[in-house]
Specification:
mainly beta, four-stranded antiparallel sheet, 10 strands
Length: about 130
């Protein structure tokens, strides 16, 4: 496609972000799901170690209480190309008409900045059977 959602592949997120910046899906209807449910997407992520900067994926059953699905590690992440990601979201999505996903960038320090989250081809899909 022609569009991606994110910061800037050749730029950086701001230094000293004191609050989280988020991208949140609308409610996803998983009420009819009976199999495993996955979040799939392509990412181009750059983020300093979680000791300094934070990138997360959160999920919610109700749009109020958010739970951690993924976060950056103690190593810097410097993707050099698009990478396909697949995360199991069955526990939140199956049988739930109000499941949502949130990508979070921040807080950050002021030492190093990277490109942050860049997302493409986001999908939620069900796998039934083996």
């Amino acid at each position: 496609g022609e569009n991606v959602f994110g910061y800037h592949l050749a730029g950086t997120y701001p230094p000293s972000m004191k609050s989280e910046q988020t991208a949140t899906t609308p409610a996803i209807d998983g009420a009819a799901a009976t199999g495993q449910v996955f979040l799939g997407f392509y990412r181009w992520l750059g983020v300093e170690s979680k000791r300094y900067d934070h990138a997360k994926i959160l999920v919610t059953r109700d749009g109020v209480a958010w739970e951690l699905l993924w976060e950056n590690t103690t190593r810097d992440i410097k993707d050099q190309a698009w990478a396909r990601e697949k995360l199991d979201v069955t526990a939140w999505a199956r049988g739930n008409p109000r499941f949502r996903i949130r990508w979070t960038m921040g807080t950050t320090d002021n030492l190093e900045e990277f490109c942050g989250w860049n997302l493409d081809e986001v999908e939620v899909y069900e796998v039934v059977g083996n």
